[in-house]
Design goal:
This is Replication-associated recombination protein A. The chain has 19 helices and seven strands. With about 425 residues, it is of the alpha/beta class. The protein folds into four domains: about 5-145, Rossmann fold (3-Layer(aba) Sandwich); about 150-220, Helicase, Ruva Protein, domain 3 (Orthogonal Bundle); about 235-320, Zinc Finger, Delta Prime, domain 3 (Up-down Bundle); about 345-415, Orthogonal Bundle (post-AAA+ oligomerization domain-like), CATH 1.10.3710.10. A five-stranded parallel sheet has the order 2-3-4-1-5, with helices on both faces. A two-stranded parallel sheet has the order 6-7. The longest helix is centred in the middle third of the chain and has 17 residues, at about 190-205. It is extended and about 85 Å long. It starts with 12 loop residues before the first helix and ends in a 10-residue tail after the last helix. Residues about 420-425 have low confidence and may be disordered.
Length: about 425
């Protein structure tokens, strides 16, 4: 079921769509050296083959798992021998290029530099860490995305109906629940989806049945498939349970719901976005490190990828669940925003307006402003809010964690009387 043309290729519209990078490159019938970085089953190998066909290039394929410097040299020798005979560009495709060590990658470098070959490397690992910088600088990195649910569903449907290359001769139907199970189990990997479909279909045909059901998919996968509708009620219920578990300082429940989402095929970066929001909304200044830890863990996840990336995600979830809680930040935002909406453009107090011109000074701009750094402790009581809002309190720190110190400092500052100004600035 590999696509035979780019028109049959599913997904990666951000690269192949109109006026996108590959679409533009193909118009000129010449490709630069490329590194295709993406998760398993996203179409890296197929895309390399189709690109070579599209530009009329000779394609030589190597697997970095099975090949060494000797194989690279043999491939280059083959290109040089064929060069005088054919006016074709040669594309050397190296699958799992991150498996090549430094010397193996260095063996490619001079041939890429001289243009003897156009290199297309495929990798599931971050090339910034796994590919030599010298080689990387001579390649364009293209990031392939995991196939979305709609794309996986299309691939499954095509395979089930295609009588030439697929399973059409079995004349089977697929229940909606079984289709959802295959999509969920695939997690964006077309190979997993097709292998699951074929295994389930052969078993159903052997039983002389005509419909593939959810239990057939589970049997084919040899594991329970969590059905998780990423756009439906179950999605929102699980996310809500995840957030409420962290808010309730229950790391065990939070981890359970985290794993339900992951195993159901949820986008890990969606989970991280919820984690980042939670760090500000439910912890805030009670633990100022919480947001930084959440952000760092997300960056670590992006560098690691799956499956190892679940470790920094787990670290973030457990830290945030156990951290002191405060919703003072979101409450302060809500109150201050409401006043901004309700009261419109209230005039800024004159004494805190800038006065860069003589006229503005004459009008009283900046007159009586107390420069905090001229006072002990770099603080002096002053009115900064517009007159109708004087005395408003938006931010009320909790007595939890580090925010208790902020609350104490605010109490002390607010209790101060207006001291003698040692000089205006």
């Amino acid at each position: 079921m590999r696509p035979r043309t780019l028109n049959e290729f599913v997904g990666q519209s951000h690269l192949l769509g109109p006026r996108k990078f590959l679409a533009n490159a193909l118009k000129g019938q010449k490709l630069p050296s490329l590194i295709l970085w993406g998760p398993p089953g996203s179409g890296k190998t197929t895309l390399a083959r189709l690109l070579a066909e599209q530009v009329g290039a000779e394609l030589i394929s190597l697997s970095a798992v099975l090949s060494g410097v000797k194989d690279i040299r043999a491939a280059i020798a083959r290109v040089k021998r064929a060069g005088p005979l054919f006016a074709k560009t040669t594309i050397l495709f190296v699958d799992e290029i991150h498996r090549f060590n430094k010397s193996q990658q260095d063996a490619l470098l001079p041939h890429v530099e001289r243009g003897t070959i156009t290199l297309i490397g495929a990798t599931t690992e971050n090339p910034s860490f796994e590919v030599n910088s010298a080689l990387l600088s001579r390649c364009k990195i293209l990031v392939l995305e995991a196939l979305d649910d709609s794309s996986i569903r299309d691939i499954v449907t095509n395979a089930l109906d295609d009588q030439t290359r697929g399973l059409g001769d079995l004349e089977l139907t697929l229940t909606e629940q079984a289709s959802n199970a295959i999509v969920s189990a695939a997690s964006g990997d077309a190979r997993v989806a097709l292998n699951t479909l074929e295994t389930a279909a052969r078993a159903v045909a052997a039983d002389d049945r005509d419909a593939i059901r959810h239990k057939d998919v589970e049997e084919a996968m040899q594991r329970r498939v969590i059905l998780y509708d990423k756009s439906g009620e179950q999605h929102y219920n699980t996310v809500s349970a995840f957030i409420k578990s962290m808010r309730g300082s229950d790391p065990d429940a939070a981890l359970y719901y985290m794993n339900r989402m992951l195993e159901g095929g949820e986008d890990p970066l969606f989970i991280f976005r919820r984690i980042l929001i939670f760090a500000s909304e439910d912890i805030g200044n009670a633990d100022p490190q919480a947001l930084q830890i959440a952000l760092t863990c997300m960056q670590a996840f992006q560098a690691m990828g799956l499956p190892e990336g679940v470790l920094p995600m787990t670290q973030a979830v457990t830290y945030l669940a156990c951290a002191p809680k405060s919703n003072a930040v979101i409450v302060a935002y809500g109150k201050s925003r409401q006043d901004a909406l309700n009261h419109g453009n209230l005039p800024v107090p004159l004494h805190i307006l800038n006065a860069p011109t003589a006229l503005q000074k004459k009008l009283g701009h900046g007159r009586g402003y107390k420069y905090p750094h001229n006072f002990e402790g770099n603080y002096v009581h002053e009115e900064y809010l517009p007159e109708p809002l004087r005395g408003r309190r938006y931010y009320e720190p909790s007595e939890n964690g580090a925010e208790a110190k902020i609350a104490q400092r605010l109490r002390e500052m607010r209790a101060q009387t207006d001291p003698q100004d040692p000089g205006e600035s």
